Amino acid sequence: MRKIALLGFVALLLLAGEVFAQEKSNPVNAAGNFTIGIGPIGNIYLTDRRPDLSPGIGALVYFDYRWSPELSTTATVMMLVQGGTGADRGENNVVFLGIPTFDVKYYFMKNPSHWDPYAAVGVGYYAVTAGSRNRGVASGLGAQIGGGLDYYLTSKISLGVATTFRSVALLGSGSTGSFPLSFLGNFGFHF
Fold first, then answer.
1. Is 14 in the same domain as 108?
2. pTM to 2 decimal places
3. pLDDT at 31
């Protein structure tokens, strides 16, 4: 009986070693389908529209479901604090929100090791809150397109960078639209 238990224990150790070696050589394939993450985000604006906003920084929280090796769906909530420029100079503490945005991501590599590049396209609901001049809230729908790169430190943890161009139609308080180019980073936990 002891010999059978010892053989079973050795087989279990060998199997665990094989799983660990596979995860270490290819953490992307060993990662789970779900990801939750946080990260910084910054916007610069490509055109002068109302409100005319200066570059701003903020944070994001996202949830991703990878339903195949090449495709995933991501829901993101983001918030940036900015000031006004141009016609809106002197406007402070303007908050730009994406509440939420949804993206479909296409991953280029069918069997990546640590690096996992992708392209994304999506839609979202955006709002710009009243700043120091109390102009009111503007909100509307927008579309985005972008791309990024995730690096898997382990099968459970990844770091990433991305760039997204957004086209947002804003309605309310004299606002017309917004065309930010967003630069973002992320820290993801996969399960």
1. no
2. 0.78
3. 72
Say if residue 11 is in the same domain as residue 89. Answer: no
Same-domain pairing of 78 and 111: yes
CA 32/CA 149 separation, integer angstroms: 18
Which of 109 and 22 is assigned the larger pLDDT? Answer: 109
> For residue 19, what are the domain limits?
1-30
Task: List the structure tokens of 60.
Answer: 């994001």
Same domain assignment for residues 134 and 99: yes
**CA within 13 Å, CB half, 16:** 6
Q: Measured on CA atoms in the order 128, 58, 73, 121, is the torsion positive or negative?
A: positive
CA distance 41 to 56: 8
Task: Please give the structure tokens belonging to residue 140.
Answer: 């509307």
pLDDT at 60: 97
Q: What is the mean pLDDT of residues 50-77?
A: 91
Helix (H, G, I), strand (E, B) or coil at 62: strand
